[in-house]
């Protein structure tokens, strides 16, 4: 039986040394899958920005039209009135300062956190717990808000947060390998559109430098950046 290394090498050998258009790349990534689990399809976009400068930070959110193939567990930290709204919206865990204490004590059984502005003084204490996991509520990503219903429903529908890392790359999921190819394409288009619109005014030169699509365990497939730029214009 081939080892994982040999399986990866066999999959890599099927990828030509050229940039693909997206319509070719997505079905290829699906075809190259060699594991038994339903892998996530991921995108890596190298941007022409220097994230060390605050005015070149790229971050934002996008609601993927076909979701991510799993429903996120949403935690809401709010005042009693907004807690009732959160319950009606379908939040999975709801509370006030007692939830902050529970998280501070090591509880992390959730995938997203939404908070009302009046609770941020208490939530701010959780920076060391939530920050490294990318879960700290933030007004820029719509997770510090008084519109709890909208925030919860968007996250449940497949809202993805993206943020450029210190090397200038945005990593983001666009669905599962088992999705129909057209659903992955639609999700990819939505993500590209949002990242391109988030281009900082201070960014000079070519913004989208390179782009790769891959599954969790599979090889990367390079995408023709000019093709993507034409798609989102």
TrEMBL record:
PROSITE patterns: RIBOSOMAL_L1. Signal peptide: none annotated. One of its GO terms (biological process) is translation. The keyword RNA-binding applies. InterPro entries: Ribosom_uL1_bac-type, Ribosomal_uL1, Ribosomal_uL1-like, Ribosomal_uL1/biogenesis, Ribosomal_uL1_3-a/b-sand, Ribosomal_uL1_CS. Keywords: Repressor, Ribonucleoprotein, Ribosomal protein, RNA-binding, rRNA-binding, Translation regulation, tRNA-binding. GO terms for cellular component: large ribosomal subunit. The keyword rRNA processing does not apply. SUPFAM superfamilies: Ribosomal protein L1. GO terms for molecular function: rRNA binding; structural constituent of ribosome; tRNA binding. It holds the Pfam family Ribosomal_L1. Protein L1 is also a translational repressor protein, it controls the translation of the L11 operon by binding to its mRNA. Belongs to the universal ribosomal protein uL1 family. Part of the 50S ribosomal subunit. This is Large ribosomal subunit protein uL1. The lineage of its organism: Bacteria, Pseudomonadati, Acidobacteriota, Vicinamibacteria, Vicinamibacterales.
